[in-house]
Amino acid sequence: MKNILLIGGTGFIGRHLVEQLNKEHNQLILFSRNAPTFELPQGVLTIQGNRMHLKNYRAQFELFKPDVVVDLIPYTQQDAEDLLEVFQGITSHIIALSSADVYKAYQIFHGSGEAVMPGVLNEKSELRTKMFPYRQPEQFNDLMYDYEKIQVEQTLLGNGNIDVTILRMAALYGEHDTHKKLSAYIRPMLTGETEILIPEHKAHWRWTRAYVKDAVRAIDLAISEPAARNDVFNVGAAKTYSQFEIIELLKALTGWKGEIITVKQNIISDAPNEFEEELTKDEYDYGQHLVINSQKIRDMLGYKESVPYIIGIDKTIAYEKSLVDSEKQTQESE
To answer: Which positions fall inside the NAD-dependent epimerase/dehydratase domain (predicted)?
Structure first.
C-alpha cells in the first residue's frame, strides 16, 4: 500500500486510475481545479485548487507524505519547475504523463514541409525541433499557449534530486473519453447513418492508440516497479491499425449495415462544409504515420494490455451506446 497523490485526477484517465489504485488499497488524494464529476471511492481525499498556485498547498501535501506523485496534466516548463520545488523533500518519485507529440514525426505530420520519416518511434527517436506545437498568437494566456511536453520532460529528468518516470502516451480511447477520438465514427453507426466518408489520404494513415485502462496499467507499473525510475517509456498498443481498418472493426462490432466511402482529396462532394474543408486543407501530412513502439516498457516493466484490443474497442462502443440511448430517452420524455 502506498500514499499516492494525483494531480489532475478527475478527468478521463484519472477516473480509471483512481478506480484501479483504490482496488489495490492505496491511500489516494486528488489535487485538481475541478471537483470530480464521478463518485469517488470511500476514503479517497480531495484538495481543490489551481496548479498555478501549487506552492500554496505544500503544507497540505507534506502532511499527506506521498510516496509517489502522479502528474496527469503537466503542460509547461513552469508546471515542471513548480513540481520539483513543491515536492522537494516530500516525495522521492514523480510520474509525469507526456505525449507522443514530442517526436519530430508529429512536427512533420503537422505540415512542416520536411521529408516524411519512415519507421516506428521508440524512446530514442528524434524529438521535435519546433517548440510550442499548439501556440497561436491569438491564444496568448490561453491554457495551451505555453504547452510544451519536451520542456516538461527535460526539466523533470534533469533535476537530480527526485526520481522521475516519463510515460509518453499514444492516442487514448475508452469509456468517458472527453476527446471522443472514436465517437466520430461510432455515433453515426449507432444512430443509423447510411454512410461514413473518409478522405483517401486519411484512410491509410496509421496512429498508434491505447485503451485507457492499458494506460492505467502502465502508470500502475511505474508506481510499483523500481526499474521505472529515471527513465522514459512509450505506452501504446502492440499493433497500429490504419484509420480505415479501425472503422471496419467498428462496423463489424456494431453490426452497422452502412457503407464506408473513401473520397479522393481533390474531389469536392456534397458533404457537410466541415468535411469539404478536411478534404481540401493541407494542414496535416497524412503520409507521416505516428507509429509508436512500446517494447521497452514491455521488456523492462512487464507491461501488457489489460484486455485484448478488440475487447477495449467493444467496451468503448458499449459506452457510446449508453450515451446515445440516454439521449434518446431524454428526447422522448420532453
So the answer is: 4-236
